[in-house]
Amino acid sequence: xxxxxxILIGMPGSGKSTIGVILAKKSSRDFIDIDVLxxxxxxxxxxxxxxxxxxxxxxxxxxxxVLTLDCESTVIATGGSVVYSERxxxxxxxxxxxxxxxxxxxxxxxxxxxxxxRGIARRPDQSFSELFExxxxxxxxxxxxTIACDDLNQEAICAEILSRMA
Length: 166
Prior knowledge:
The chain is of the alpha/beta class. The protein has eight helices and five strands, in the order βαβαααβαβααβα. It has helices spanning 16-27, 34-42, 46-53, 55-66, 86-95, 105-111, 128-142, 154-165; strands spanning 5-9, 30-33, 74-77, 96-102, 145-148. The chain is globular. The model has no long low-confidence stretch (mean pLDDT 95).
């Protein structure tokens, strides 16, 4: 299998799902949204998993589904917590290029208005800024390409990714 996939990582609200769809269209690739994959196979929302089984269960379920991926020529929008699993990240790196959609905290806080209802795999007492600090280091560690998204619109982000992948 060739490493023809684009794997998007980043915080909730960074645009992984939206950019993923646009990028898939522009690059003639398939599209997989891991959060949607989880919800369709588990038959419940991410928030329901967190509420009933805890955030660590959501992370375990996410890892399980990421490790089943075997695709080519696909844009993959990961869940924001995928970077907690070294196994998942190693598997994703074997499938393609890992692209970090880097958005600053202030912009993310404007975009995320439903923090407590969004199905985010986080400690119950963890604020969004604490989550941002914790995950930022992991995103940077695993990213092969980082796109600074704060001053770019969706089309420009996709154009930047495509130019960097050429």
